[in-house]
Queue: 3 jobs
Job 1
Amino acid sequence: MSSKDKIVIAFDLYGTLLSTESIAKELATHFGQEQANKIAALWRRYQLEYTWRMNSMTLYKPFSEITSAALKHALLESSVSLTDEDISKLMKAYNNLGTFPDVKPGLDAITSDPSIDAYVFSNGSDEMVSSSVNESPSLSAHASVFKGLVTVQEIEVFKPDPTVYHHLVRKVGKSFGNEDMASVWLVSGNPFDIVGARAAGINAAWVDRGAGHSGNGGWTDQLGTLASGGPTIIVSGVEEAVKGIKKFMAEDAGGSVAGHNSESVEMGPG
């Protein structure tokens, strides 16, 4: 099977394959676990917010610098402090984030499937993403699954700017306006990423890990309604995303076109 005929699955890294919440374990060595969890959540919040603000101002700094600045913001807002050495250690710990439990079986399924080309697709710099993929204790064993690592370093703009998704399509050897666009998929646990991909004309599987937990789960992002429609499919994890994408492509061959505002389809197990 030629690359042109394959399904391309681009996996978001932070918050989809790697759990950014796992950094709370490192923070807990300095603070109590409850406060560490709150700081970790704030850290992630400002990490993303800073990228969106930078986009709006047409400015760019590497994701590692934004991540460090966001950590300092979270610490100040929490009325605590760390030494420069401790902050440096926390930044290094970002290369050792753990994966979600559903990642391993999902990537294992791709290993034995010649119809799929898998990529990592991230806001991170080349060095940061490569380090995270190759140094994470739980993700490094699967590094060979990925045909490539696609970052924003070359174009110096962050998700959800459409330039980022156009960059992905070019990097994986596809073209806009052609039928093979329908075979490019984003898998992400971040709603803003899903809406951005759909607005740019890419199919997207949203990983809803809150499904099944009381009071959590379900697509709530209303910007999708205004901008591009919601996710193409909704899944509970990476393994289900791989199965769901293959099922969708098989059932919808020649039918639905990426970028149309079709209703989301929830995929069940199996």
Job 2
Amino acid sequence: MDIILVPGFWLDASSWAEVTPPLAAAGHRPHPITLPGLESADAARSGIGLKEHINAVVEAVDALEGKVVLVGHSGGGAIIHGAVDARPDRVARAIYVDSGPLGEGGVINDELRADGDEVPLPPWEGFEDADLVDLDDGLRAAFRARAVPEPKGVAYDRQHLHDERRYTVPATVIACQFPSSLLQEWMDSGHPFVAELGRIHDVEFMDLPTGHWPQFTKPAELGQAILRAVDRTN
């Protein structure tokens, strides 16, 4: 199975480096991607928005044959959901890593502080304690050294969806900060945070307790969780 891995904010394809070995060892073909504007600290980010990131994932899907699995971490969850909407017949499963699908009209996070056309990685004090679980000083330093400013438009633009067949694509949520039991309680109560997720016909949950960046704090475990989801995909 071809598996396209979409990083969250401030990260490029290399952020999946410790996650993909179990996938490749099992005979799958992982394709971590670097989204437009995240190529380097000096890359141009003007004019790059959510649509451009979704289009980049759609292009990656179109470059492959047959059905694919999409994996999206954090803000990448909104991006892969846009790609599912654009290519519902090409996606066998969408896997949301500490993230979920973003519905029509939603934004990923327009509360992040922007500097011109970009959003730098905030200071650690700007995150919730739950975000930073297991992210020790060494991992924080390594993350900050590799972080690339996110294009402002990706964080601030509204999601626009067009094809309700997206709800027929199976989804897996790998829950890290919040236990899956809480997410399911929110779904049962109609919480707006999980409204789009609640519309998907086939959703499964896996728990991987850690902070918001399991690709750094528990990469081997994350790789195995993705593998289990892929192996259950027809």
Job 3
Amino acid sequence: MSPATDRAAAEALDAADPLGEFRDRFVEPEPGLIYLDGNSLGRLPRATVDRLRRVVEQEWAGGLVRSWHDWIDLPTRVGDLIGEHLVGARPGEVVVSDSTTVNLYKLAHAACAARPGRDVIVTDDDNFPTDRYTLAGLAQARGMTVRVVASDPVTGPDPADLLAALDDRVAVLSLSHVAYRSGALLDLPTITAAAHGVGALMLWDLCHSAGSVPVGLADAGVDLAVGCGYKYLNGGPGAPAFLYVRSDLQPTLRQPIWGWFGQRDQFAMGERYDPEPDVRRFLTGTPAVVGVAALEEGVRVLAEAGLERLRAKGMAMTELARALAEEWLLPLGFELASPVDPAARGSHLTLRHPEAFAISRALIAEADVIGDFRTPDCLRLGPAPISTRFTEVWDALDRLRSLVAAGRHRIHAETSPADRRVT
């Protein structure tokens, strides 16, 4: 064993970790469990438990409808927190609303409408399914075409291929900043500039980067973006999502779902729809107050930790996992399915193995390690920088090595990947 992969090295990293104290801000799972699925569902902040108790027992039970005086601005207030601390947006450019899928539809529809005469949407074939499905449905409804760029399963779409797919017929280029399967991190500023070079609007999915990777929406001049609240943002299962619209575009873009929370002077109950002049025009119906309140607490913890420190730790943890996998797991039939350079990937690491699904099931049942499986043969390991220890990464890889070396995963080989129903 090399010095870098000795457990003592992981212990030293924990001892020097400037984010170490944040671990105690989260509710502990059962003893012995190692959770490496923070890129799918973040853990529960202790502050959220207190906040939800206050929302339910005081604001709802006691305040009743009077509490809307405090609730009404939650979507924009939490949106500004996300914008300032996690995605590099200006005040008034981010709002919490709906789900990622609905937000993607709203923004893609608005973008296509803003580019009349253009009939092509560009994306890649390894983009997250909801993105591909939503764009395909929108294209069908509007008589447009989706132009799909082939994506390398490890490194993502080649910038040259993306550039070749862009022309004056393209209305929107829509991509994920971090690939959900491999963790490949795309060059957001360069790709955004390429879309602008042909007059197209750029729409980014930030689900696997918000809260773990610097995004810099304003600096890059990004037009539109969406992201979810239940992964690195620790907003809870099904947490509300967020959307971003660059400020100069807000007065002119029209989203297709004309709800009363996007209406100017909404309580006048006007006869005709007259949208707000700012980002609030992208709201639809009444916000899910409990969900937005929970999301606010998750975002506050990350804001306090600082995105640069979260990014540094995320790279260090996935680099430790990569080094351990190279030494221990490649001889057991695994392959690295994420970029080798830590700066070229997000905060999760993916390994490929022909029996990946059985291994992922066995990890949970036999080794008390919760990772994640993605078809067809990928095991994702997502240590969340805010709440995971380096020694947990080391112990998880050690348990994985022992389990596969002993063949204990094979008792789970009859289970079908179709049995798993999680986002």
